[in-house]
Specification:
The protein is an alpha/beta fold. It folds into three domains: 60 residues, Up-down Bundle (Single alpha-helices involved in coiled-coils or other helix-helix interfaces); 209 residues, Rossmann fold (3-Layer(aba) Sandwich), CATH 3.40.50; 48 residues, no CATH class. It has 14 helices and seven strands. β6, α11 and β7 form a beta-alpha-beta unit.
């Protein structure tokens, strides 16, 4: 099917105005940006009819996925994640690679929408044809990682991108969530030592395959180097999260670009050390965990929609808040109502 024919069919075959799965798949595999954006919107939709189409599309793209390098990027707000990703992405494009950035935006607690799209923070990168940036609201999903980020990752791989970066808001359980969906987990850190070192959660360090002290320039250069040495010492006391690899620490300045190109060299060393069998094992474990996470998310959504549960929910929540019943007893009541007992 030609691209022109696919576009023609999309105008008449769908009530919602989106291309039907067949033409959408053809356009997606051809690298069409609009089709890729539509496909991600489809998998992010909570409408049951959209979910059915999304599942069919994902099943079709599965043979075309898994060929990219998957990197996770996290760090506290203000560490310069977007500046780093833009500079790093431009460096990869200069090396002939293509890059998809799945940026999980902070969400408005009132409206649930994204506060600031990452395209506005990666303006130069967003103009490159070899780059695709997709901001998605974190919403209520635990960890600040959109529930469908894993599926979006498969879609961008099917569209031909050979490097995928998942950026998180860097709060709560986001570090664990993104580490469970990528090949290599990178943590950006601010220059600081001594007491500042204690402010970094040990759990984040334990997950990291690479620590990068950003803003290593100007007056902060010496501080950044001391921090890198401190973190390197701390890593010696921790077990590596990835078999066959000893986590490394480096410094860079995303603003000036100093040290950014060397980070890809570290990524290549990581891939060589872990090897294709190691990456395949990690992805297999992640897929199994993803399945059970999807089971939990789907069951919880079905529970909340159940009419009998809806009738009981408000009263039970008030009883738990007032101490008239225990959370465990209230949960059992909801589950009994869900099962029709």
């Amino acid at each position: 099917m030609s691209v022109a024919a696919a576009h023609s069919g999309s105008k008449t075959s769908s009530r919602s105005g989106d291309p039907p799965p067949g033409p959408l798949l053809a356009l997606l595999l051809a690298g069409d940006r609009r089709a890729l954006a539509q496909a991600i919107t489809l998998v992010e939709s909570t409408r049951p009819d959209h979910r059915e189409r999304a599942d069919a599309l994902l099943a079709s793209v599965l043979p075309h996925t898994g060929k990219s390098v998957r990197l996770g990027i996290t760090g506290v707000p203000g560490v310069g994640k977007s500046t780093f990703i833009e500079r790093f992405g431009l460096t990869l494009i200069e090396r002939g690679r293509s890059l998809a950035v799945l940026a999980i935006d902070p969400s408005s607690k009132r409206g649930g929408g994204s506060i600031l799209g990452d395209k506005t923070r990666m303006e130069e990168l967003s103009r490159r044809h070899a780059a695709f940036i997709r901001p998605s609201p974190a919403g209520a999903t635990m960890g600040g990682v959109a529930r469908r980020t894993r599926e979006a990752m498969q879609l961008v791989e099917a569209a031909g991108f050979d490097t995928v970066l998942v950026e998180t808001v860097g709060v709560g359980q986001s570090e664990t969530a993104v580490a469970d969906m990528v090949d290599m987990f990178i943590v950006l850190l601010l220059p600081g030592g001594g007491d500042d070192l204690q402010g970094i959660k040990r759990g984040v360090i334990e997950l990291a395959d690479l620590l990068v002290v950003n803003k290593a320039d100007g007056d902060l250069l010496a501080t950044a180097r001391r921090s890198a040495a401190d973190y390197q010492h701390a890593l010696r006391m921790l077990r590596s999260p990835t078999a066959g690899w000893t986590p490394e620490v480096t410094t860079c300045s995303a603003l000036s670009g100093t040290g950014v190109a060397e980070i890809w060299a570290i990524v290549e060393r990581f891939l060589a050390a872990v090897g294709k069998p190691g990456i395949a094992r990690r992805r297999a474990e992640q897929a199994r965990a993803w399945m059970w996470n999807e089971v939990g998310e789907t069951l919880l959504a079905a529970l909340r929609r159940h009419p009998e549960v809806k009738k009981l929910l408000g009263g039970l929540e008030r009883d738990v808040e007032a101490g008239r019943t225990t959370p465990a007893a209230a949960a059992r009541r909801l589950l009994e109502a869900f099962h029709g007992r």
